[in-house]
Write a structure and sequence with these properties.
The structure is a single chain. This protein has 560 residues and is of the alpha+beta class. The protein is 52% helix and 14% strand. It folds into three domains: 5-182, Formiminotransferase, N-terminal subdomain (Formiminotransferase-cyclodeaminase, Chain B, domain 1, 2-Layer Sandwich); 187-347, Alpha-Beta Plaits (2-Layer Sandwich); 355-559, Formiminotetrahydrofolate cyclodeaminase monomer, up-and-down helical bundle (Four Helix Bundle (Hemerythrin (Met), subunit A)), CATH 1.20.120. Strands 1, 2, 3, 4, 5, 6 and 7 form a seven-stranded mixed sheet that branches. A four-stranded antiparallel sheet has the order 13-14-8-15. A two-stranded antiparallel ribbon has the order 9-12. α9 (295-308) crosses α10, α14 runs antiparallel to α15 and α16 runs antiparallel to α17.
Length: 560
């Protein structure tokens, strides 16, 4: 149900010719479902960083087209710039953003490299998580010798490309080679101090960053037996940092690169920096995010501080975003707009408005209009959403009840379960309408030949199955959500017993309403084995719901 999202950050070897840069960058816009987020050219480096996001298959297609276009417009034999480079598309890292593992992202990187090598004849190397050996993990090592050293590199049997031709040919001379990887998300993150002292900001940076500081004795650096400086490591891994003074704001900042937020997150860097600053007599006043951030990083921040406060984690996403902004002081220097700074929100900015985004009044009026959708299926899902929202409310209220402080985690866990059911049902509100529209699209397909008739029939059959599976999923989710209301009726805040009861009634209504939709859609399915199975499963959920509702009402009646 939740979309997988990856980010692609290709660096092309052109930073001066704006026409070329935008011609290359804009090819990603041709791929449906891909969002171009940023184009950042550098004249001195003669290099441009391009950022786009989307679902994996779409991002791979966009990356392929970009690499192809860059190879057509950039001649590496004429390139010069301050930044190390060896290809028209010098590097092309893929970054997991949402609902996808590094292992899966690595597989997509390998697919991209294979296609680039086979279809474009461009050679290249995999690095970081996609590397084929430990020797090839480090980009600096892979890129050593740069473009000018490629002929020698190709002659070295230890540096045979991972994809594409292994001989030094005309394609290499004009396009160079490309390095493709899967890597973790990197965040540029600055923390604000109530000071103007770069020296003190640096001292805190040295406390925190992985590389720490040089070990000194009597003011002199301590050297090891190889003559290298002995270092005292800092507090956090995967963190680079330095202090500086920002004239625009008149304050000192600690500027961090968080190179792997799965190892050290924004909130961990902020929290430890705050502690280190306090020990040195300074105060952290807030922080500044450079660029975009994944939604999960903000959610994790909110959860971190909610746990510190012993408050329920089972609250809405929007509330968690507010907590994260305030906890990190992201609005200290200027307003922080989540719609412009969170990757997933930026991606969805131009999409059509969903039913769940309507006001209650607009939703009712849309339902009452002449259009056949939204219909009973969407309404059933929404009623189920309201039901489990009530159960979640009781869990959150119970977590705050005076005298129940020791049980806050117990109620938080139930509230989190409720939020999960709520989000699943909210998705199904719109997906029921989408499923109906797939059937309509099938009936609109051409039927002028036997082949078209057969394709049309199959499309209608597949769409009808899906339109039956969605209300079945509503039934299943709404029934399962009743566990929240049942638990709260038994052990939650008794002053809210009626709310748990109404929540259970809403869930029951959602199940029965969705059951009607399963039955009416299943009768048009030609695959009767499929239809009979889903009808039997739906009947079983219906019967369990009726029994659970009776149990729930008996508890409510007895306690009221």
């Amino acid at each position: 149900m939740n979309k997988q999202i990856i980010e692609c950050v290709p660096n092309i070897s052109e930073g001066k010719d704006i026409t070329k840069i935008h011609t290359i960058a804009n090819v990603v816009k041709e791929v449906e479902g891909v969002k171009l987020l940023d184009v950042d050219p550098g004249k001195a480096t003669n290099r441009t960083v391009i950022t786009f996001v989307g679902e994996p298959a779409n991002v791979i297609e966009a990356a392929f087209r970009l690499i192809k276009k860059a190879s057509e417009l950039i001649d590496m034999s004429k390139h010069s710039g301050e930044h190390p480079r060896f290809g028209a598309t010098d590097v092309c890292p893929l970054v997991p953003i949402a609902n996808i593992s590094m292992e899966e992202t690595t597989e997509y990187a390998r697919q991209l490299g294979k296609r680039v090598g086979e279809e474009l004849g461009i050679s290249g190397y995999f690095y970081e998580n996609a590397a084929t050996s430990d020797e090839r993990k480090n980009l600096a090592t892979v890129r050593s010798g740069e473009y000018e050293g490629l002929k020698e590199k190709f002659e070295n049997k230890n540096w045979k490309p991972d994809f594409g031709p292994s001989e030094f040919n005309q394609q290499v001379i004009t396009s160079g080679v490309t390095a493709i990887s899967a890597r973790d998300f990197l965040i540029a993150y600055n923390i604000n101090l109530n000071s103007t002292s770069t020296r003190r900001a640096n001292a805190i940076a040295f406390d925190i960053r992985e590389n720490g500081r040089a070990k000194l004795v009597d003011g002199k650096k301590v050297l090891d037996k190889n003559g290298e400086t002995v270092r005292i490591p800092g507090k956090l891994k995967a963190v680079k940092g330095i202090g500086w003074f920002i004239e625009e704001y008149g304050i000192a900042q600690i500027s961090y690169n968080l190179t792997n937020i799965s190892i050290t997150s924004m909130h961990e860097a902020f929290y430890e920096t705050d502690l280190a600053a306090t020990k040195r007599g300074l105060r952290v006043t807030g922080s500044e995010l450079v660029g975009l951030v994944p939604l999960q990083a903000m959610i994790d921040c909110a959860d971190f501080y909610l746990k510190k406060q012993e408050r329920s984690l089972g609250i809405s996403e929007s509330e968690k975003i507010k907590i994260a902004i305030k906890s990190l002081g992201l609005d200290d220097l200027k307003p922080f707009n989540p719609q412009e700074r969170i990757i997933e929100y930026v991606m969805n900015a131009d999409t059509d408005k969903k039913l769940v985004d309507f006001t209650v009044k607009d939703f009712a009026e849309e339902t009452a209009s002449e259009s056949m959708a939204p219909g009973g299926g969407s309404i059933a899902a929404y009623v189920g959403t309201l039901g489990v929202s009530l159960g979640t409310m009781v869990a959150n209220l119970s977590a705050h009840k005076p005298g129940w402080d020791a049980k806050w985690e117990y109620y938080s866990q139930w509230a989190e379960k409720g939020q999960k059911y709520k989000n699943e049902l909210l998705f199904l509100v719109d997906e029921d309408t989408n499923a109906f529209n797939k059937i309509i699209d099938g009936f609109r397909m051409p039927k002028s030949s036997q082949e078209e008739i057969d394709i049309r029939k199959q499309a209608i059959e597949d769409a009808t199955k899906y339109a039956t599976e969605i209300p079945f999923k509503v039934m299943e989710t709404a029934y399962n959500s009743m566990e929240v209301m049942l638990e709260m009726a038994k052990n939650g805040l008794q002053n809210s017993l009626s709310d748990a009861g109404v929540g259970a009634l809403c869930a029951r209504t959602a199940v029965i309403g969705a059951y009607f939709n399963v039955r009416i859609n299943a009768k048009d399915i030609k695959d009767r084995a499929f239809a009979d199975q889903i009808l039997n499963d739906a009947k079983a959920i219906y019967n369990k719901t009726i029994a659970l509702e009776k149990e729930m009402m008996a508890i409510v009646d007895a306690k009221i």
